[in-house]
Amino acid sequence: MLDYKYNKAILKVNIMNENTYTIEGDGIPFQLTQIPQPPKRLFVQGKMPNEGAKILCIVGARKYSSYGEEATRKLILGLKGYNICIVSGLALGIDGIAHRAALDAGLQTIAFPGSGLDRKVLYPSKHKKLANEILYAGGGLISEFEMIHPAFNWTFPMRNRLMAGISEAVIVVEAELLSGSLITTRLALDYNRNVGIVPGQITSKLSDGPHSLIKDGATPVTCSADILEMLGFQRPEGTFVQRELLLDLNEKEKKIIEELQIESLNKDQLVQKFNCSAQEINGLISSLEIQGLIKEVGGKFRIN
Questions:
Q1: Domain span at residue 225?
Q2: Residues 6+ apart with CB under 8 A from 142
Q3: Low-confidence ranges of the chain (pLDDT < 70)
Q4: At what angle do helices 66-77 and 94-105 cross, to 10 degrees?
């Protein structure tokens, strides 16, 4: 389990102006010293993650759906009251939603833009106000690029390695197969970090990336309790209601869940109970398995 570690006695800080400072050498967060190509210097505005905080990175699609927005907000708001720092990339879409949800939940949030921190080059420019809100709320902005370094295509994978490296776990919400979010999660897997995936609708291209990661062994995340458990907190009781609220289940899927809460059933029993074809039951079961809500044990399906 990772802990945020730094030695205050040997923290090397060079004050550049009243808002920005650099951290070098032994002042670099311990987790970042353990990744390939660790940063030699970080430019910081505001605060580093609170001491003892569990650091959670949340990334996702820039062009998101209403489902992705709702899922992100509900997952983060469900973490309220815990010593958790939300990390993301300040980008449009899920990144920005994650930062704002963290602010709404009273959680510290840290942004890693793909540019320098000077407001003339800060990317994206539409999130300058959000960046200031993060600082005002006790969060921070971190970059390894010079203050006036603009964003380029190659700067984003570089900052992604920092987001994955500093975090104990990475959660992805909606992403196409070829996306920066998947770069972050692949790096997290390489760094032996926990990776959680919010399952999506099987008809959406935004689900292709997350579902490919589930096939590779990433953990489905359907409620805030899943994240708390991933971060080492004791799992709260009574979390299934939140799962049902979070996921976009149709009426037949909800009825299957209700039945499986009473007893485990095999495929033939489900066909008989719901008076529908085996093909339809297969589709419903597959959808619920992808979402991480049920699993097959000994030929019968039960709540996961």
A1: 8-230
A2: 42, 43, 44, 48, 110, 111, 112, 162
A3: 1-18, 235-248, 290-292, 304
A4: 30
